[in-house]
Structure formats: C-alpha cells, structure tokens
Amino acid sequence: MVIRLRIQGEKLVSKIRSFLELIRFSHTIFALPFACLAATMAWYANTQTQLWYAEAEGMAEFVPQGFRWMDGAGILLCMVFARSAAMAFNRLVDRKIDAENPRTAARHIPAGILSVPQVVSFTVLCALGFIASTALFLPANPLPLLFSLPVLLFLMGYSLAKRFTNYVHFWLGTALMLAPIAAWTAIRGETILKLLQIWRETGAFCALPAEFSALVLALAVCLWSAGFDIIYATMDADFDRRSGVHSIPGYFGIPNALRIAAFCHILVPLPLLALAFFFPPFQTLWLCGTGLISVLLLYEHWIVDPKDPIRVNAAFFNVNSLISVTLLAVGILEMLWS
Question: What domains sit in the chain, N to C, each tagged with a CATH number?
C-alpha cells in the first residue's frame, strides 16, 4: 500500500511538473513584476488621493479603500491563471506547427507527454480560475470582473495572430502591457469610477497625470516585450518562411528583425523617463534605474546570436528577468523613500 501511494504521488508530481513546463511557468517573471509595481503604485496613490484632489469638486469626502491582502492575492491569482490559460491555449493551437519544427518537436503535446484532452481541461480550469479570481475585488471594484472575459480573449488571440500578421510580436507586447494596466485598475478602480462619475455629473474631468501612470509604464512594457519576442523569433526565421508562419524575422530577415527589435528597445527608456513627470515619487533613483535598464538592453543586443540558441535564451530569459525585477525593486524603493 505504501509503495503504491508513493508511486501515485510520484506520478502526480511528475504530471504537475509537466503542466508547469508546458506553460513555461518560470517566464511569469517577465510580466508579474510589472503588475506588482503597478499595484504598489496604485496603493501609494490611494494614500495620496485626499491630498491630490483636495480642491477637486466632489472628491473632498472621498477616501479610497486602503491596502487589503485580498487585493494582492487577487492580482497574483489573476496573473497566474490568465497567463497559464493563454500559454496552454497557445500550445494547443500550435501543436501541429510545434511537431513540424525541430526546435519545438519535443514539447509536451507533440511528444505525447500530455494529451490534447488534458491540456484542454487545464486551459478551461485556468480560464475559469482567472474569472473567479476577479471576484476578490468585489464589491468595491467591479471593473476586473467586467473586463475579465475581453482580456482573456485578447490574451488567447495572440496564439492565432501568427496566422495572419507578421507583427504578432506587438500583439504579445500589448498582451503583456495589460499586466500593469489591469493591476492599477484592480487597486485604483474605485477612484477611477468616482472620477468618471464626477465627469458624467459635472462635465469636469479632474483626473491628475498620476492616474495615467500605468498607461505610461505599460507602453514601456509593450516596446520591451515586443523587442525581446522578435529576438526570440529569430531562431525560427527559416522555419517560419517555409511553413507560412507569420513573424518579423521570417518576413524581413534576421538582420532587419534585429534592427526593429533594437529600435523598440531604444524607445523603452522614453516612457520610463516620462514616469518621473506622471508619478511624483519616481525621481532620482528611478532615473538611475532607467539608466541601468538601458545598459541591460544594450547588453542583450550585444550577446544575441540567432545561430546560437544558448545566447538567445540568455538574452531572452536572464537579461529580461533582471530588467523586470530591477524596475520593481527601484520603484518600490522610491515609494518607500518618498
């Protein structure tokens, strides 16, 4: 009996590991820090609302909800479930393409490690988990629940975009930029609804630049992630051309694709620098952090070699993980010291 239970336990652990590998769970570190940063910015904004809007009509008595652990748990669960559903859906719809590509033929569905029904069930469960997690922000903030289905459909749409547009990488960038926007909306939604109510009733739009901070941060995320996805796609440029898969490297060629990726990354510091205007706490340390990010992006392009998957993976995972974690750390330190 003990041996049988141990074998069953080992099979369960192996199956869980396979699902985590299927969705590249470690890659959650790309978007999650930006969601955490935007959420922390929103919590800070909530503490400053009465000061910021002291003279705004209709805002004098308004006090937004303070920090709640449930909100933090909601953001974490939403991020994990949404990304897991989107990644699993990607593996489902790309299973035939993956089977034909030597680089991806060993992935879980083509290799028979996980079956299509298993991955379908996993995708549905994660999608339902994402929608259910948005209920944690109720009743004060219904916005996450209202937008949960459109957001989920857009995330899954990335998996289909490579079938009709060479600019699929910017779809991914837009998908990742939803992380800070959604996190800000989840925490700051009560204030957003109040400002919209005042605008509707009085015609006065009194929102301060700080309310658009998440959008500015999201623009940086979009440019950054589109750029590194173009770099990653250079490994499949030849296969994409042969198989009809749309991508910038496949259509424009690797040298031009790397130039486009570099242009995206050259633009990344601009919205990061602009945040010093939009979000008051972000000053000296944030500007130094932006400089460090610029150096890391230069390093990413210096080490990349499309003919060497090891160097591409180093640029893709190691450098970009450091970028996201660095910005999170710098942003939190700025808010603590302000």
Answer: 28-337 (1.10.357.140)
